[in-house]
Write a structure and sequence with these properties.
Strand order of the largest sheet: 11-12-15-10-16
Largest sheet: 5 strands, parallel
Distance between the termini: 80 Å
Structural class: alpha/beta
Shape: elongated
Strand content: 15-25%
Helix content: 25-40%
Mean pLDDT: 88
Radius of gyration: 26 Å
Number of helices: 15
Low-confidence stretches: none
Amino acid sequence: MNTPIAAVVSATTVGVESVPVGVEVALVRRLPGFVTIGLPANASREVAERVRSAMSACGYDFPRLRVVANVTPVELRKRGTGCDLPIAIGILIADRRCTPIPDHIIVVGELSLGGELRPASEAIVAGLSNLGKIVVTDHESAATIHAFGGRAWGATTLTDAVELLSEDDVSVEAYDKEFAPRAPALPSRTRGRGDLDFVEVRGQDDAIRQLALAAKTKTPVLLVGNPGCGKAMLAARAVGLLPDMTVEEQRDLTRIRAAAGLVAPGSEPGRPLRPFRAPHHSVSPAGMVGNSTLRPGELSLAHHGVLMLDEVAEFGRHVIEMTLQAHGKKQVDIVRAAGAVVMPSDFWLIAASSPCACGYLGHPRRPCHCTDEMRERFDARLARAVPKDHVRIELSMTSVVMLTTSEPGKTTKQWRDGAAV
């Protein structure tokens, strides 16, 4: 008698892209057991316990045979828990308790011990990378995919997923007929950092004017000033000077954030803001470009947004070199033991620095204690840390009188639209 074998299409994430994987499940007439091939050792043990418990909680008897699940390609390193659902579905198909699934359906999802589907970042990346296919996953991930015009069926439990896949017609045409494709709606606000606005800034109109001009072409900027003059304050609001994101940019940003595990479960789908990333100067090279698991680093998380390097002269030499290379190529090339990937990295670079090593050169009240040699070394280190084509903006300390008596400044929208330039 032939061994029943079921095949299910799933997906995993490599870098910021979705890679299709095949899940084959065979029920072998041998001593009962559960063997998973193609996953890391720890993941194999964990998925077996989750799938067995979830099936029992949903009322499905676990086969009294040896279950062999093969996740292909075997040499590809998989990450995450998105293979739980396809393995469970494959067991039910091999046991003839669920109908076979066509290749245009991608099954991705994590199972709880009680059989509920939990959000899986791999599902969002798969849905935003394979817009022509249908992704079966949890409701929250499906909502995010729907927000960008993708196709997805959301399920609450393993039982719901089986019922969805057992429908008479699960073709793309039937899906489009039932769920009319809709163009992704552009969010009402896709720029800025929350409620931060330039109207809160006093006494720095010249610096804001130069930032607004540099934002039109995303020219690198170097803010130079004494501690407390407002460098970080200006940089945090500068992201609002960039134009609204297009639908494609929103999709790219959501895919990158999902690949990094930064899409919070239950968050409002499809409303990403332009990112503002400000890593500390002690950040490691792996944290900047991506770690050994090929997750995105700060350079990719700042894609379509602003990357601020505060006290840029204090960053490590390797970090600065990688940042400048990524800024010039608008992409990050990562080679690790797990593989080689290319991730997008198109950001507006804003660096900030004190004017000297002690920080008080040109301060109206405090003297500078640096020698000429110290200043020369600091200037040389600062020159190596920023692109050659940068715009240098000198900031001055704002007096308390000006802060308390001056009128409110122009809004970010006025600066962006050119009314205040």
